[in-house]
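Service request form, structural biology core

Requester: graduate student, group of Dr. S.
Request type: structure prediction, single chain
Budget code: on file
Notes: please return the result as structure tokens.

Sequence provided:
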Amino acid sequence: MNAIPSNPYLVRVGFYLTKDRPNRARTFREASIWWKKHAEGVALQDLFDAKQLMDTADGFEDKSVGQLAIFAHGTPTALGRPGRFGLDVRAIRRHPPLVYSPDDFAEHWAPKLVDGALISLAACLCSRDPKWYRVQLWGRDLSSWSAKSYEWGGSMSFAARLAQAFKAQGKRVKVRGHCAAGHTIHQALLREHTGDAPRGRALFGIVHGVGIVPERQLRRQWQRVVKGELAARWLLGINDGETVRLIKERLGL
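Core staff response, request fulfilled:
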């Protein structure tokens, strides 16, 4: 079953938040090619900062957007550069002029999204709980994924806070994001959050089932099979049922 509502009149909207990104042109081109290949909707738009992201919502009719995807820098608490531009859970409401909170973002975009819409965050670490980040990986490789760090979940992550902000606006959404640092769309360590389940579900758990601990051999197999096309398909909601089936088939489950 596709994660995106099947109404053909709904659009998929993609944004690339690019301010001061050194490899902006190359990464935007790569993301644009992938988006054009898989997303039947509005072309990926290159935006300078979060204010443009907020203002762009005015160009869509209410309840017309089935998916919103944002490609950007990310941290456990922010989308964009923390404290400089983008969205940040620590931002003061109406913080001028470049930093906005998840509440600000939900207030602008909630009327435009349908209930059950998918928000895809192609950004490092935004589904990772800050406590998990500090306790497990201070001074270590941000792309690592130990069995212990997997158990932390992401209840205080940026993605979880965003899902809760939309719930506060009366809108039920799914927010998917990265649990580690890595490629913009090929990162295999992914999690989905909702307003009712902010801790989220890891794609690993969705595929393997509850109670399966990601030991070293399983983690290596997961990276080998999922990293790349299958990870990008799930992050962006390209036919979830088929994507999960393919992952299980290639894992031998």
